[in-house]
Amino acid sequence: MSIRIHTHTGEHIALEPNSGDTLARTIFLGGLWYGVPLCSGLGKCGLCRVRYVNDTPMHTADEIKKLGDEAVAQGWRLACLHPSKSCDIELPEPIRSKPTKHTLADTTGNFSLAVDLGTTSIHWTALVDDVPVASGQELNPQTGLGSEVMSRLAVAATPEGRTVLRALILDRLTELVQTTAAMLVGSCTSLVISGNSVMTYILLGMKPDDLATAPYTLSYTGGDEQHLTTELPAVYIPPLLAPFVGADLSAGLTALEYGQTTDYPFLLADLGTNGEFILALSPNKRFCASVPMGPALEGVGLSFGRTASPGAITGFTLTPRGLEALYFDDTASERIGMTGTGYLSLVAILRKHGVVNESGQFCTGSTPLAAKLANKVTTIQGEPAFVINSTLHLPASDIEEILKVKAAFNLAMSALLNAADFGPAGLKKIYIAGALGEYVSLGDLETLGFLPAGCKNKAIKAGNSSLRGTEILTTSKQARQFAEALPDTMIQLDLTNDAGFGDEFIQRMRFSYVD
């Protein structure tokens, strides 16, 4: 018995069922969804839809909501919600996240490679003589086995899971080194990889027990070179600062502080599937904290969420003619959905005009333009939704996901400031890095309550500070010494194990900043 798959190209493929897995995971491991930003079991993205040819399983409420009555009646299901067992299915053309690559300089020779290994995305830069000559970003190939840190940890709990996860990333890193070497007609002489603690453990093939259950600890703290495979040079891993504040943050601090004139105190907020925060009071004293934020800001798990790639909407403007979309790449012919910053931009516009209230519910509005916007609120598959165009809409459940992210951000920021015993007015700068750090509007963050009122003027879009710091660490011994001294300056706040975490989180589930 097997899983018989009919692809959109007319191929017929048979896969062995894997007891205990979902159908989506089996299809992913079969190599058919490489580059597809799956939400990995959340039933939200809809990118794992398949059509059963016969013996169609009973549908779920989530499938009605996501696919609609007609599609469900035709046998369409979400593969993440059904077990991996013998069946006969049709697979539509996958919607893949397109990698981007840029040539920055016409130079060849031996090179250093800096890699920011995120839970959702990989960003990299190749440098010749310390000068960036090429860069790129793409979906982390592990995403189909868990869209955020804790689900990835669940897979890594078994030896088989660790082996598969590690092989996925090592194969891609090896391919990246080889293709870059061919492009630059040289060899990779230095490799630095910065990632959160979970990504680092998986990269090294380490058993992640100390990160999987409380009390969370670090059995490996980085700040050294590791040998991964014979195809790769020794890799330098920057220091891990706390169980869920990883090498990406020590690299980020290197970018912001090493060799720089720094205004203290400042807050660094690196936002991805896991929010990592550092409140730096001085060169010798820093607080750090982390909160789970889910994959929404990475463009994964929302109804029309996409990673930042050609054709994705990254923001909106409101004109007398109505909403106008801003795209990651205006030249892309295919329009594929919205990034996390695109969602924030839209919700902020609706919030400003009273079409979304403080609690995240749709309303009639409070400005002349609001009537036009409010007319686009309807009901789709039994759920209130704002219609963007003929193919995209914003359901109430997606607004709730944004509210969860806002609440997590707000909680971490207010907890750090309370620990340091001063308020937002005492901060000199707020650096927004990670998934939001390049495209987000700082005004949107203030409108939605991520930032306290009046703080957008001291906020700075730091872009990918982790990658910039990693670039510095590829060749500078002094920068590595700076990074390796950081752990001794850190005071960790453990937010999620605090007895009041749940109540504090719920209090912040509204679009206004709570101290």
UniProtKB/TrEMBL annotation:
InterPro entries per record: 2Fe-2S_ferredoxin-like_sf (IPR036010), Beta-grasp_dom_sf (IPR012675), Corrinoid_activation_enz (IPR052911), Raco-like_middle (IPR041414), Raco-like_middle_sf (IPR042259), RACo_C (IPR027980)
Record organism: Pseudodesulfovibrio nedwellii
Alphabetical list of Pfam families matching this protein: RACo_C_ter, Raco_middle
Domain RACo-like middle region span(s) in chain numbering: 112-257
Segment forming the signal sequence: none
Protein's recorded name: (2Fe-2S)-binding protein
Domain RACo C-terminal as annotated: residue spans: 267-511
PANTHER family: IRON-SULFUR CLUSTER PROTEIN, IRON-SULFUR CLUSTER-BINDING PROTEIN-RELATED
Coiled coil: none
